[in-house]
């Protein structure tokens, strides 16, 4: 977990996390459900490798993707208050994840106030991202929505050292981009082609190349403050 992005963790804190993440590990193949809506949650899931997503699915099969997870992300730290899931989690790529039980999770927070504080910051960022996604669908144009998604994922990956200069992994299909941005797949395809012609991005072989991040951020009306990358929680 990249909780140290929010709070300075001592070596003892990092050892507690390391042990928790090694106790129970699962590997799932791409496009496989981790847990479905209606099921009883038993674990906090932490993504160790790969990409995952949170989604809601309507009775007629239509789906809205609500967020993406990358390595180091927790999928719902407060999951234990639910008797059953009100949304689903699934993999995008092949995923390696750690499962932390309720008792283990409570023990971690009791043993380390610093980790507990970092978890509060993590939840704050999770909610802030959700607010931004709501703003995307409610106010931004199709061009701005997709550009914003590219910016967010590129900046998040760069913060965790998972970019290569101006490129990063980007395994999302156009269908998944559509489900995340509230657009049709045809509209997504046209918009990405337009962005290519504008020499903003290139998508090829599940890789995203950003030619000018500042320009892309400007086009997307992207302000990274909601990701809290300035480490305001450090103390």
TrEMBL record:
PROSITE patterns noted in UniProt: CNMP_BINDING_3, HTH_CRP_2
Q: Which residue range or ranges hold the HTH crp-type domain?
A: 140-214
UniProt keyword terms in alphabetical order: DNA-binding, Transcription, Transcription regulation
Check the record and name the InterPro entries matching this protein: cNMP-bd_dom (IPR000595), cNMP-bd_dom_sf (IPR018490), Env_Response_Regulators (IPR050397), HTH_CRP (IPR012318), RmlC-like_jellyroll (IPR014710), WH-like_DNA-bd_sf (IPR036388), WH_DNA-bd_sf (IPR036390)
- Pfam families associated with the record: cNMP_binding, HTH_Crp_2
The reply on keyword Secreted is no
In what residue span(s) does the Cyclic nucleotide-binding domain sit?
Answer: 5-109
An example Gene Ontology cellular component term from the record? Answer: cytosol
GO molecular function ontology, one term from the record: DNA-binding transcription factor activity
SMART domains, sorted = cNMP (SM00100), HTH_CRP (SM00419)
**PANTHER family the UniProt entry points to:** CRP FAMILY TRANSCRIPTIONAL REGULATORY PROTEIN, DNA-BINDING TRANSCRIPTIONAL DUAL REGULATOR CRP
Name of protein: HTH crp-type domain-containing protein
Q: Which organism is it from?
A: Novosphingobium lindaniclasticum LE124
């Amino acid at each position: 977990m990249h909780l140290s992005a929010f709070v300075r963790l001592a070596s003892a804190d990092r050892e507690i996390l390391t042990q928790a993440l090694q106790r129970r590990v699962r590997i799932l193949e791409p496009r496989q459900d981790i847990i479905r809506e209606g099921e009883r949650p038993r674990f906090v899931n932490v993504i160790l490798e790969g990409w995952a997503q949170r989604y809601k699915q309507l009775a007629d099969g239509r789906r809205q993707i609500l967020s993406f997870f990358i390595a180091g992300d927790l999928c719902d730290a407060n999951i234990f208050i639910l008797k059953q899931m009100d949304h689903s989690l699934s993999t995008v790529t092949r995923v390696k994840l750690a499962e932390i039980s309720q008792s283990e999770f409570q023990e971690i927070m009791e043993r380390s106030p610093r980790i507990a504080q970092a978890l509060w910051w993590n939840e704050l960022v999770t909610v802030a991202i959700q607010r931004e996604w709501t703003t995307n669908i409610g106010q931004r144009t199709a061009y701005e929505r997709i550009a914003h998604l590219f910016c967010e994922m590129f900046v998040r990956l760069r913060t965790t050292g998972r970019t290569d200069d101006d490129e990063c992994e980007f395994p999302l299909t156009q269908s998944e981009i559509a489900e995340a941005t509230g657009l049709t797949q045809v509209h997504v395809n046209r918009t990405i082609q337009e962005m290519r012609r504008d020499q903003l991005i290139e998508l090829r072989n599940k890789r995203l190349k950003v030619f000018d991040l500042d320009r892309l951020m400007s086009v997307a009306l992207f302000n990274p403050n909601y990701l809290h990358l300035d480490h305001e929680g450090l103390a």
